[in-house]
Every structure is written in structure tokens, then in C-alpha cells.
């Protein structure tokens, strides 16, 4: 689910997808990391 397959039936937006998904995926990953660190902190 990281990058679209080159053999996908929709290769039109494949070059535009990573650049558009990065600004939304990076804060999401940082949020998950912060929640994991917070859960570990509460578990101590």
C-alpha cells in the first residue's frame, strides 16, 4: 500500500500520488508515533 503498482489499471496519477500523499501521511505517521510513545509512558 506504499506505492501504486506500475501494472495498475490507473497509471495516470501514479507520479502525482506520492507528492500529494506525503503532506498528509507524514503528520499521520508522527501522530501514531507520538501516541505509541505516550502509551509506553503511561505503561511505566
TrEMBL record:
Keywords: Membrane, Transmembrane, Transmembrane helix
Stretches for region Disordered: 1-20
Parts of the chain that traverse the membrane: 20-40
Protein name: MFS transporter
Native species: Xanthomonas translucens pv. translucens
Amino acid at each position: 500500500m506504499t506505492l501504486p503498482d506500475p501494472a495498475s489499471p490507473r497509471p495516470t496519477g501514479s507520479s502525482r500520488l506520492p507528492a500529494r500523499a506525503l503532506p498528509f501521511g507524514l503528520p499521520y505517521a508522527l501522530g501514531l508515533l507520538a501516541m505509541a510513545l505516550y502509551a509506553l509512558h503511561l505503561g511505566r
